[in-house]
Amino acid sequence: MSSPTTRGSRIPAPARLFLVVLCFSLVGDEIALLALTFRLAETGQGVWVSALLLAQLIPMVVVPPLVGPWVDRFDGGRILGVITAVQGVALLPIILFPTPVVMVGGFLLVSVLAAAALPALLAVLPVLARESVSTSVNAAYEGVRSLAALTGPVVAGALLAAVSLRLCLVIDAISFVMAGLCVFAMRVSRPGKASDGTDGGAAEGIRALWRVPSLRALLPLLAITVSAMSTVNVALVFLVRGPLGGGEMMFGILSALWGAGLLGGSVIIARTRWGARGPERVVGVGALTTGVGLSAVGLFPVIAVAVPALVLAGAGNALVNVSLRTAVQLRTPAAVHGRTHAAMAALIASFFVVGLLLGGLSSVQTAGPVFLLGGLTVTVSAAGGLLAPLVPGLRERLREPRGHGSEQRR
C-alpha cells in the first residue's frame, strides 16, 4: 500500500468505472437543476427560483451530520447504493406533475437524499482505490465534478431547447438508478465498526476534526475562502453586466472558465508530491492562488484579465477541495470518516450560505470592489496561514499528534 504522502498511485479499474458512472450522474444533476431553473423562471416569479436554490443548499448544512454516524456504523457502500437509486425514484413526482410547488418540493427531496449520500460517497472513495487515503481518487473525483459542471449546462440547454423538461428529468433519474446499481454490482463495501468511537453520534465528527491542530487551524481560512468564493459567484453576473459590458453568453463562458480551472487544478494535484504536512500546506497554496485570481479580476475588470484570472482561481479552488479531503482522511481515524466528512461538508455549506448572503449586497457598481475585497482577504489570510508555522513556537502547536497518520495506513 502506497503512502498517502507521495504522488498518487494509479487508480484501479473498478474505481475508474465508478467515477465514469458518477460523472454521468453528476451531469444529470446539472441538467435537472438548469432545466428546473429555466422553467421556474418562466413563471415570472423570482421567489420560485430562490426557493429552488435554497432547496439545493440547506440540506447540505443539516443532513450530512445526521447521516454520518450511520455511514460509520453500517456498510457505507450499501448506504450509498440505496440512497443513490432512491434519488432516481424521487424525481418521478416532478416528471409526472411539473408544477412549481411539485418542482421545488421534489427537488428538495432529491437534495436531501444527495446530502445524505455525500458522507457515504467520500468515505467509500478510498476503499475504491484500495487504500486508506488516496490523493489520486480524490483528485479524480474533483475532476469528475468539474467536468460535469462544464458539460451539464451545455447539454441541458440543448435538451431543453430541443425537447422538454420531462426528458431532462428522465435522464437525471436514469443516471441515479445506474449509479446505484453500479455500486451494488461492484460490491462496494465499507463495513461499519462497533468500536473506535462509532457510538459517539454526529458530534463525534466535529470533535474528531477539532482534536487535530492542523485541521482546526484551517477552519478560519476555509470560512474566509469559501465565503469569498460564494460572494463573487453572485457578483459575477453584475461584473459581466457592468464593467465587462457583456451579456448571457459572456456570463456562461466566464462561469465555465472557473470549471476549466477546477479541472486543471485536479490534474495538477493528482501529480503532486507532498510531505507529511503536505495536504494542509496545499490548502493554503490553493486559497492563495484563488485569492490572487479574484484580486486580479477586481483590480483590472477587463476581459483580457478576467479570463486567465478566473481559470487561476478555479485551479486554486480544486487544490483546496482535494487537499482538504485528503487531509481529513489522513488525520482522522478511519472509524469516524463518515462523520468527519459529514461535519466538514456541513461547515463548508454553512460558509457558502454566508457568502450568498453577502453576495446579495452586490450590484453593477460594486461588483469590482467585491471581487477585490474578497480576493485580498483570502490572499492575506492564506499567506498568514502559510507563514504561521515559521513563527517560533507555532510549529510545535500545529504539529500532528502521533498515531493518526499511521493508524490510517494499517
From TrEMBL:
Pfam families: MFS_1. InterPro entries: MFS, MFS_trans_sf. Keywords: Cell membrane, Membrane, Transmembrane, Transmembrane helix. PANTHER family: INTEGRAL MEMBRANE EFFLUX PROTEIN-RELATED, STAPHYLOFERRIN A TRANSPORTER. It comes from the Bacteria. It comes from Nocardiopsis alba. Its main location: membrane. This is MFS transporter. It is a multi-pass membrane protein. The chain crosses the membrane at residues 17-41, 47-67, 79-97, 103-125, 169-186, 217-239, 251-270, 282-303, 340-364, 370-391. It is found in: Cell membrane. The keyword Hydrolase does not apply. SUPFAM superfamilies: MFS general substrate transporter.
